[in-house]
User: What shape does this take?
Amino acid sequence: MRKVRIAILGGSGYTAGELLKILLWHPFVDIAVITSRQREPIAELHPFLYGRLEKVCEPFDPDALVAQGVEVAFSCLPHGTSMECIPPLLERGLRVIDLSADYRLKNPAVYEQWYKEPHHDPRNLEHAVYGLPEIYGEQIPSARLIANPGCYPQTAILGLAPLVAERWIDVTNIIIDSKSGVSGGGRTPKLTFHFPECNESVSAYGIGSHRHTPEIEQVLSDLAGQTVTVVFTPHLIPMDRGILSTIYVTPIQAVSHQQLEELYRSYYRNHPFIRLRKQPPATKDTLHSNYLDIFLQPVRGGRVVIVTAEDNLVRGASGVAVQNFNRMFGLAETTALLP
Assistant: This one.
């Protein structure tokens, strides 16, 4: 297959840096354009790229992308900004993989409720495909606009999908307790992520109000064919990267460990990045990889505990974006993501 010329919008952030690491090894990608308000060599923004990529960041210009033969844009812009830049790209025939939250929630009113601003592109929102390959993989190849899933939601959705889809659990009684490394807050300095504030400390945040809640509920409700509600509480952990989620559910009837494993192995049998574990995973088990690890355990009181782990910058963002790219072009899903 020929190389596809791609652009990365918003090149200065962590997700863009991680995406560049992966795409440098991709045999069917030509990194044509990187945009940023900081108009300097990309290696100045991400020093690990010295000697590996000599691109200078450009201002965002849809016509310039077309002139340079770009076919696919990865948008690493923040929410709100992304939906302002994406429509002119779609109008010019480009395909877009959006790593922001702007096209994940199908209902514009829900977006406004949780993100505190109106959605400015409902026309394209209607046609966006939620880019979780293990769930919506068949819709991805023909999509013009992929809404890359959030980092926390992947650990919750993929941890719960088989049980919800087969209606094995009470979908009104799901508790998701998640911990994330500091890189999940992005590269823009914030007091909460300042070293003296977060080091040797663990803190909960967004209790009952975190923006990933409706994203989790939307996909799980789609799988269940009925409304699913969750209690989702994220925590900040003093480490660079990684997410660990512990999920508590109540089965509708008694279920054994063997039955759980058989269900999950069957559901994910053709998905190379889902690993079922015999012991609870640690975040280091998935470090710098696109794997999402799942552990299952029936416990006292008839409940089941599910533990999931991922690297929030790879599987949680840039890695799954490359998975989506691979599916869009009929490539092996593991291209550039596994040796």
About this structure: The longest helix spans residues 151-165. The chain has a mean pLDDT of 96.
